[in-house]
Amino acid sequence: MSEEEQPRWSDVLKRRLANSNKDARSEEEIKAEETELFTKYYTEWKGGGGNNKPFSNIPRFYYKLPAEDEVLLQKLREESRAVFLQRKSRELLDNEELQSLWFLLDKHQVPPLSGEEAMISYESYLQVRDKAGPKCKNFFTARVYAKLLNNDPYGRISIMHFFNYVMRKVWLHQTRIGLSLYDVAGQGYLRESDLENYILELIPTLPQLDGLEKSFYSFYVCTAVRKFFFFLDPLRTGKIKIQDILACSFLDDLLELRDEELSKESQESNWFSAPSALRVYGQYLNLDKDHNGMLSKEELSRYGTATLTTVFLDRVFQECLTYDGEMDYKTYLDFVLALENRKEPAALQYIFKLLDIEEQGYLNVFSLNYFFRAIQEQIKLHGQEPVSFQDVKDEIFDMVKPKDPYKITLQDLVNSCQGDTVTSILIDLNGFWTYENREVLVANDNDSIGAADLIDS
User: Fold this and answer.
1) Contact of 296 with 325, CB cutoff 8 Å
2) Which residues of 234-264 are buried (b: 16+ CB within 10 A; e: fewer)?
3) Do 253 and 317 have their domain in common?
4) Domain that holds residue 352
5) How far apart are CA 208 and CA 124, in angstroms?
6) Strands (DSSP E) along 234-363, which ranges?
7) How many domains does the chain have?
8) What is the CATH number of the domain that holds 234?
9) How far is residue 305's CA from residue 309's CA, in Å, rounded to a whole number?
10) Where is the PP2A regulatory subunit B'' EF-hand domain (predicted)?
11) Distance CA 329, CA 321 (A)
C-alpha cells in the first residue's frame, strides 16, 4: 500500500469516535485503545517506528582503550600503531628523493636571478609537481606558493625557500613519528618517563654530548626533561602533547647538538648543551655543603649572588615539593628555570604563585609591602638609607598598568612586559639595586662605549 493510500491516524480516530455509541466496551477500554492508536500513528509519522532510528547511520567514533589485564588487546593495539607509524614513515621523502627534487627545481628555474637566489614561476612549479612523484604532491599547492611569494616583480618564488619549506615539513613529520614511538599510551602525548627514554636514546646521536660520562646521563636527562615540562606543562599534569613539543623551539635546540662545529657561545646559551648541564649540576653540588644530595633553605640562600630575600626563600620552601624540608635536584631545576627566564610567562607564573601569599589570584599593596620589607631590611644591613615603599609601590603600578588600579594579576604582569623587573625588585636585593641605579648603569655603559671608540680611533 502506498503512503497516500494509508489511512491517516486522525481519520481512524474520527471513525472510532463515531462508532463509540455502538460500542459495548467500557469507557476506560475505549480510551486505552485511542491512546495506543495515537501513539502508534504519531511514532510512525515522526519516523521513529521499527528500526528506522535517526542515529542508526552514525559511525562509531569512540573505542575504549584495552584494560591492563587485556594483554592480547594491548599487544594488538601496539602492533597496529607500529605498523601505522611505519607506513607513515615510508610516505616521507628520503634523502635520494629530496636530492632528485632539488635537481628538478634547479632545472626548472626561471631567470633572472633575484640577487643570488634562483627563482621559479608558478607554471614551472606545476611542471615540477607533475614530474616529482606522488610523495611530493602535497607540497605543490597554490597556498604554499602564495605563502612563499615575497615581492618578486615577476611573481616568482625562491627555489631555496621552497626547498627549505619541504625539508622542514619532512623533518617535522619524521620527528613526530619518532616521538610517537615513545607514546606508550598512544594518546598523542608523552609522560615524563616517555620523554626521558626518548632523550636517553638520543644522546649517542648527538656529537656535542660525546664527552659526557655515562654516570652523568641520568642527571643530564633530568636536566633536559625539566625544561620541556616546566614550560610546556604549566598545570603540572605530568604529560605534554607531542604537537606542543614540535611547536616550541626546545627540540631544535636539543637537535642543534648534532652540529660538530657548534660555537662555544651557542653551547653556553643552549640549556641542553653539555657545558650548560654541567654548570647547573655543578652549582647544585656547590650549594650542597653537607653533601646529602639535597638543599636546605640556608644552602639555597647562597644561590646566584646570594641576595635573594629570606621571605622569598621561605615561600619557595612552603609552596614547592620538598623532602623533610629540603629540596631535591628536580625541584631545584624548576627554581633555576624560573629565575633565569623571568620574562617568560611560565616563569612568571611560578614566581607569581610564591608572591600571592593570600592565594587570591592577584597582588595588592599588602603583598607588595610584605616582600619589599625584606628588601628594606637588607638595605639597612648594608648601611644604606632605606627606600620608601610608597615610591616603589607607585613605580610598580605605573610599570604594570593593571586593569584594576589596586590589584596586579598574573596576566597584568605578562601583558606589561615588565614582569621580570617587578619580580626582581621584590625578591632580590641585587635586582632591586640594578633597577634603582639603572640610569647610572646606562650612563656608565655609554661612557665605556665612548672610551672604547676613542681608543679604537
Assistant:
1) yes
2) eeeeebbebeebbeeebbebbebbeeeeeee
3) no
4) 307-456
5) 42
6) 239-241
7) 3
8) 1.10.238.220
9) 11
10) 184-260
11) 11
155 and 227 housed in the same domain: no
Report how far apart, in Å, the C-alpha atoms of 441 and of each of 199, 205, 444, 454 are: 42, 45, 5, 20
Q: What is the pLDDT of residue 454?
A: 35
Of 240, 268, 77, 98, the C-alpha closest to 169 is 98
Asked whether 120 and 159 are in contact (CB, 8 A), the reply is: yes
As given in the structure block, the three cell numbers for residue 234 are 604549566
* CA 273/CA 266 separation, integer angstroms: 9
- 358 within domain boundaries: yes
**Do 173 and 226 share a structural domain?**
no
**In one letter, which amino acid is 61?**
F
Residues 6+ apart with CB under 8 A from 430: 304, 305, 307
pLDDT band at 29 (very low <50, low <70, confident <90, very high): confident
CA distance 39 to 34: 9
CA dihedral 179, 183, 189, 193 (to 10 degrees): -100
Residue 241 has what DSSP assignment? E
What residues have CB less than 8 Å from 447, skipping those under 6 apart?
none
Q: Note whether 102 and 164 are same-domain residues.
A: yes
Q: Is 351 exposed, middle or buried (0-12, 13-18, 19+ CB in 10 A)?
A: buried
Rounded to whole angstroms, how far apart are CA atoms 180 and 443? 53
Q: 21 or 337: whose pLDDT is higher?
A: 337
The answer as to whether 205 is a domain residue is: yes
Strand partners, 308: 428
263-320 pLDDT, tens digit each: 989 999 999 999 999 999 999 999 999 999 999 999 999 999 999 999 999 999 999 9
